[in-house]
Amino acid sequence: MLNTIKPKVTLVGAGPGDPDLLTLKGANALAEANVVLYDALANEEILKHAPHNAIKIFVGKQIGNHAYTQDQINQLIVDNALTYGNVVRLKGGDSFVFGRGSEEIDYAESFGIPTFVVPGISSAIAVPAYQGISLTKRGTSESFWVITGTTSDRNLSSDIALAAQSSATIVILMGMSKLSHIVALFQKESKGKTPVAIIQNGTMPNEKIGVGTIDTIQEVAVKNNLSSPAIIIIGEVVKESNKLKGFYEQFVTAEIKL
Questions:
Q1: Which of 8, 39, 191, 239 is catalytic?
Q2: Is residue 41 over pLDDT 80?
Q3: What pLDDT is attached to residue 63?
Q4: Over residues 160-187, mean pLDDT
Q5: Residue 22 and residue 14 in contact, taking contact as beta carbons nearer than 8 Å
Q6: Phi and psi torsions of 177, nearest 5°
Q7: Pairing relation of β-strands 208-213 and 230-234?
Q8: Any catalytic annotation for residue 176?
Q9: Checking CA distances to 231, which of 3, 52, 102, 239 falls within 20 to 30 Å?
Q10: pTM of the entire structure?
Q11: From 61, 137, 208, 245, the catalytic residue
Q12: Whether residue 174 lies in the annotated active site
């Protein structure tokens, strides 16, 4: 009997959290899936787009708790594609922004399996946008950096020290455990008054936000009980958000009184 299984792997970016931010192309890819391997950061409501009889496997990684290693995930992708056919790898945000998507694509293609990529809306852009923070703005910020706060060897990215020397907007993902180190780098560059926002669970109903400056943001994070998953946005554009400018107006008034 001829093998009629046609293996295929599609990486789908699930977006930043709000299920309505999944793209139409992503929803269409899920609708054709035989197997879905999904992340911790992918909203599980998105799985409703997959057929009821599709196999759904959680392969998420959280701090100190990995359902599978990356090597095991790579092998699951290949094994399920060869056994069942159409595999959708559903990843939070965009698969190619700190998502290790290229590694998974390379591994699948090494077995001759056709691969496709459906871009997702990255949390690095969407989460600030939900709070009215424009990462670039004429006369305020000409560019922005998107940096991982924690590298694969669990250290602080050396790029943050370089970013602290620039006038760009800085967006740091996976940086909450290194917040004190990040603050110290910006203070070293005499940027203690630079506005900062931390947004946890961005675009979701349980979203939490704390705003302050480099000098105050650690206290703000403790007061608001902010933790991962969260995004740190540093730069003058933060205080120009219509949603946040009230805080900074009060902050300036308080400083004048002091």
A1: 39
A2: no
A3: 60
A4: 97
A5: yes
A6: -70, -10
A7: unpaired
A8: no
A9: 102
A10: 0.90
A11: 61
A12: yes
The pair of structure tokens assigned to 178 is: 């290194």
Q: What is the pLDDT of residues 100-156, one digit of tens each?
A: 999 999 999 999 999 999 999 999 999 999 999 999 999 999 999 999 998 888 899
Instruction: Give the distance, in angstroms, between the CA of residue 245 and the centroid of all CA atoms in the same chain.
Output: 25
Q: At what angle do helices 70-84 and 101-109 cross, to 10 degrees?
A: 50
Catalytic residue of the set 18, 91, 94, 174: 174
Strand-strand pairing, 230-234 and 169-173: antiparallel
Contact indicator for 11, 91 with CB cutoff of 8 Å: yes
Lowest mean pLDDT among 42-46, 131-135, 180-184, 192-196: 42-46
**Tell me, what amino acid is at 27?**
A
Average pLDDT, the chain: 92
HSE (side-chain half, CA atoms, 13 Å) at 9: 30
Of the candidates 111, 102, 103, the one whose C-alpha atom is nearest the C-alpha of residue 80 is 111
pLDDT at 2: 54
Query: Whats the size of the chain, residue-wise?
Result: 258
- Catalytic (active site) residue 193: no
Give the 3-state DSSP-derived string for the chain, with helices as H, strands as E and coil as C. CCCCCCCEEEEEECECCCHHHCCHHHHHHHHCCCEEEECCCCCHHHHHHCCCCCEEEECCEECCEECCCHHHHHHHHHHHHHHHCEEEEEECECCCCCCCHHHHHHHHHCCCCCEEEECCCCHHHHHHHHCCCCCCECCCECCEEEEECECCCCCECCHHHHHCCCCCEEEEECCHHHHHHHHHHHHHCCCCCCEEEEEECCCCCCCEEEEEECCCHHHHHHHCCCCCCEEEEECHHHHHCCCCHHHHHHHHHHHHHC
State how far the Cα of 29 lies from the Cα of 8, in Å rounded to an integer.
Answer: 11
Q: Please name the residue that has the structure tokens 């595999």.
A: 87
